[in-house]
Amino acid sequence: MQKCRLGLAGLVQKPSIYSVPKTGARWLTLYKSQALDMLQQAGVRVRPSQVVSTACEAEAAAKQYGYDCSIKTSDSQEQAVQRPGQAAAMASKMLSQRAKAQLVVAQRVEQVGLWYLAMTIDRENYCPAIVVSTRPGHVQWFDFGFSEGITDQVVQRLAQQLGLSAALSSSMQALLQGLYRVFRAKEASHVEIGSLALGANGSLTCLDARLAFDPAAAHRQPVLFAQRDTQHQQPAEVEAEQHGLVYVPMAGGSVGTVVNGAGLAMATADAIALHGGASANFLDAGGKATRETMLHAFAIVARDARVASILVNVYGGITRCDMIAQSILAARHHLAIALPMVVRLQGTNSELGLDMLKSVHNGLYVESDFGRAAQLAVQLAEERRAEPSF
């Protein structure tokens, strides 16, 4: 299972080829400063840096680093600081352009090279892997055993392939062992160092870091997941998470969707697009949906002013379709949802659920065919949007 393979430009996409999904469950990703702190606590060498929120704090940090440092926001390029007063001036300008921004002042690190390194999951071979790029367009993968971790043999293989000196091999082993401690203890799915500085003496210093964690680990890692910053999430997304729902608003859409299962949700969005429409959201109710969580799901989708129709597409396995039908009726009654709704139920108790919905005719449409259901939802949305507003 332990092997090395090479990736050349055009064959293996360069970072971030291991990026977390953009739909589906809300993965936890930490700020770079949080990620670096975690790696440092695990024994990884990181460059000194400070998070600041005022110009005075930025100047004080720059002075501490002997005015041999850089300053940046979370989404900007680093700017070099080389003399007194420069950090304060730069910070004032950055803070005036971004409300509630946090800045990072980082000490400059002498380097003779800059590498990329990540520890992630090799999904083709069902094992963790080290991914290294020492030059643009050249990526190497080194699989290893999860239980064994970073052994001497793993480091030797990597050192041989990369042509590392004894000093650099020692630094690499210490780095990988620290990354693996975080990878395993914190149940990370992805640990990435986008800029790994190579020192003339064989040292390896992390200039930045990105950590991603699967939401399935949330109940085992409560302290870690408490670090999630919901400030930049839409209130509807935060509300959905609180009720075990996965909700992601999508630009330009008018068809709201309530679906169980990420795969079916993506297929539903594709079907809507195929018939000339666009989804207003991705909402996965999951396999453990209850009447209460479904009511929250309908409330979240219906509150979106862009939504002109709702497509409910449920394949019942663990989820019972009669419960979904009860939720639909309750949502229309208690939440006063007047939007046209297309319902497709398949699977467990689907006949029972469909029987419940047969008596409702005003604005509720039952359709068993996937394509026709999507087409009807698009048509109803277009008709509603064409209605004059007063």
Automatic annotation (TrEMBL):
GO BP term, pick one: succinyl-CoA metabolic process
Keywords, alphabetical: ATP-binding, Ligase, Magnesium, Metal-binding, Nucleotide-binding, Transit peptide, Tricarboxylic acid cycle
Gene Ontology molecular function: any one: ATP binding
UniProt cross-references to Pfam families, sorted A to Z: ATP-grasp_2, Ligase_CoA
Gene3D superfamilies: ATP-grasp fold, A domain, ATP-grasp fold, B domain, Succinyl-CoA synthetase domains
Entry's Gene Ontology cellular component terms: mitochondrion; succinate-CoA ligase complex
Pathway: Carbohydrate metabolism; tricarboxylic acid cycle; succinate from succinyl-CoA (ligase route): step 1/1
Residue ranges constituting the ATP-citrate synthase/succinyl-CoA ligase C-terminal domain according to the UniProt record: 258-352
Organism: Ophiocordyceps australis
Domain of life: Eukaryota
Protein name in UniProt: ATP-citrate lyase/succinyl-CoA ligase domain-containing protein
Residue span, ATP-grasp fold succinyl-CoA synthetase-type domain: 30-197
Transmembrane portions of the chain: none
InterPro entries cross-referenced by the UniProt entry: ATP-grasp_succ-CoA_synth-type, ATP_grasp_subdomain_1, Succ-CoA_synthase_bsu_CS, SUCC_ACL_C, Succ_CoA_ligase-like_bsu, Succinyl-CoA_synth-like
Keyword Acetylation included in the entry's annotation: no
